[in-house]
Amino acid sequence: MIIVDNALARREAEQDPIRVGLIGAGFQGSGIGLQIMTATPGMRLCAVANRNVDSAIGVYDQVDVRPVRCDTRKELEAAIAVGRPAVTEDAIALATAGGLDAVIEVTGSVEFAAHAVLAAIESGKHVIQMNAELDGTIGPILKVKADQAGVIYSFSDGDQPGVQMNLYRFVKGLGVTPVLCGNIKGLHDPYRNPATQESFAKRWGQKPAMVASFADGTKISFEQAIVANGTGMKVARRGMLGPDFSGGDPSAAQVPIEQTVSAFEPYLNSAGPGLVDYVVGARPGPGVFVLGTLEHPRQQHYLELYKLGKGPYYCFYTPYHLCHFEVPTSVARAVLFQDPVLTPSGGPTVGVIAVAKKALSAGEEIQEFGGFEVYGVAENIEVIRHDNLLPVGLALGCKLIRPVEKDTPLTLDDVIVPNGRLIDQLYAEQERLFGCQ
Questions:
Q1: In the predicted structure, residue 251 carries a pLDDT above the cut 80
Q2: Geometric angle at alpha carbon 243, from 240 and 244, rounded to 5°
Q3: Pair 164, 35 in one domain
Q4: Angstrom distance (rounded) from CA 281 to CA 284
Q5: In terms of CB atoms within 10 Å, which of 61, 136, 295, 325 comes out highest?
Q6: Which range of residues forms the domain containing residue 377?
Q7: pLDDT of residue 186
Q8: Is the confidence at residue 437, as pLDDT, over 70?
Q9: Quick one: 181 and 131 in the same domain?
Q10: What confidence tier does 417 reach under pLDDT thresholds 50, 70, 90?
Q11: CB 410 within 8 A of CB 371
């Protein structure tokens, strides 16, 4: 957002920077911290929380800053008050500490993140997160609680859902009706797992299961679900359409995104809520696209003149997503303009269900996103409720009580859910509030 740079410059000139706390010091968290400290005037990274405090210290090591280690909220608040960078193992202490304007949550967890995000909201802090798994499971109820607390709850710019929402708003602002928000992938194989992705993960310093969740469709299902929940859109069918132009070869030449529109056209309806989806083997990857339409013939003439074709569907795209580089802008939008990048518009319209990645036996436990047991698939919320399907965001830690065949969606009756989890409580509250809609 172009106005953000000037607004941050004013905060820097006034010596009144936005004060930020970061929860999560992994691959993305480290990059976000670096971006704030080296390229974002008008913003200060006051504190970092991570379960392994050495990783939190490592965020500051990138710029040769030595933070103070804090074990309590009181110690954190004292450090923040005097401008001393701080680290802690206690995410709740950071989330509730006074002196912070916003908290960035980037842990990739669900249960742990639910506690931290809820604590930050209840203590009056804006929350910006890169956690599609959390948002795609209980985002709507977290948005309700943020509204009640008078703060912003938002997914971040830079990651593909946020980039899609920016493009959606741009297209809508032109007077064009968005009918599909899309994600561009290079590979989709639901049977990828931590073993198959280990070498790639090692090369880029990432976790094998997380990388596997990108390849097996879990991540993109969550990403498109939260775009759907922010726009009111749906999926055309379970798992989305996902046309594949790669011919099964990720190294094959990619087709221009404009040439993929015909694969979606039979499912598009300008009078409907619109669709979220993805395409494999198109360029520019890993960008995003929005398909839109408009009826006025004169405006159609202008769009053709401007090289967008004859319609009836026009393809707008952003050729990149720059993840951690753009997160500070999301923080500034929330704090300075009360403008969320992407937040649920009401109750969920699309969720992500757990599907067996292999034949599962009674007693097996679902370990992690991108693991060996299940992959995530986007489905419309009405179907999830009617068929009692297991949201994959609730599936981790669940144990099978009976066998489930490969590629079969799991139901809540197939598993034992761990006791006492906040994520289950919030999901139940979300269903009580929105389930009758």
A1: no
A2: 130
A3: no
A4: 9
A5: 136
A6: 350-434
A7: 87
A8: no
A9: no
A10: very high
A11: no
Q: Which amino acid is at 30?
A: S
Residue 86 lies in a domain: yes
Mean pLDDT of all residues in the chain?
Answer: 95
Q: What is the pLDDT of residue 262?
A: 95
Asked if residue 97 is part of any domain, the answer here is yes
Residues sharing a CB contact under 8 Å with residue 397, sequence separation 6 or more, in sequence order: 365, 366, 417, 418, 421
| Inside any domain, residue 345 | no
Q: How confident is the model at residue 210 (pLDDT cuts 50, 70, 90)?
A: confident
Domain end among 337, 361, 382: 337
CB-CB neighbours of 52 under 10 Å: 11
Residues 6 or more apart in contact with residue 396 via CB below 8 angstroms: 110, 111, 366, 367, 368, 369
Q: What is the largest CA-CA distance in the chain?
A: 65
What pLDDT score was predicted for residue 150? 98
Q: Residue 240, SS3?
A: coil
Q: Which has the closest alpha carbon to 215: 407, 369, 406, 110?
A: 369
pLDDT digits (tens, 9 = 90+) for 165-176: 999 999 999 999
Angstrom distances, CA of residue 437 to CA of 292, 342, 347, 348, 432: 27, 22, 8, 10, 10
Q: Which residue has the tokens 């073993």?
A: 195
Does 89 lie in the same domain as 31?
A: yes
Q: Give the DSSP letter of residue 326.
A: G
Q: Which domain CATH number covers 148? A: 3.40.50.720
Give the contacts of 432 (CB within 8 A, at least 6 positions apart). none
pLDDT tens by residue, 279-312: 999 999 889 999 999 999 999 999 999 999 999 9
Q: Closest Cα to residue 179, out of 269, 239, 296?
A: 269
Is the pLDDT confidence value at 253 over 80? no
Residue owning tokens 């928000």: 181
Evaluate the omega torsion of the peptide bond into residue 312 and state whether it is cis, within 30 degrees of 0: yes
Residues in Cβ contact with 8 at an 8 Å cutoff, skipping those fewer than 6 apart: 18, 40, 41, 42, 43, 332, 336
Q: What residues pair up with 314 in beta bridges, in sequence order?
A: 292
- Nearest CA to 278 out of 123, 425, 164, 432 is that of 164
Q: Average pLDDT in the 384-390 region?
A: 97
Q: How far apart are CA 116 and CA 93, in angstroms?
A: 9
0.70 surpassed by pTM? yes
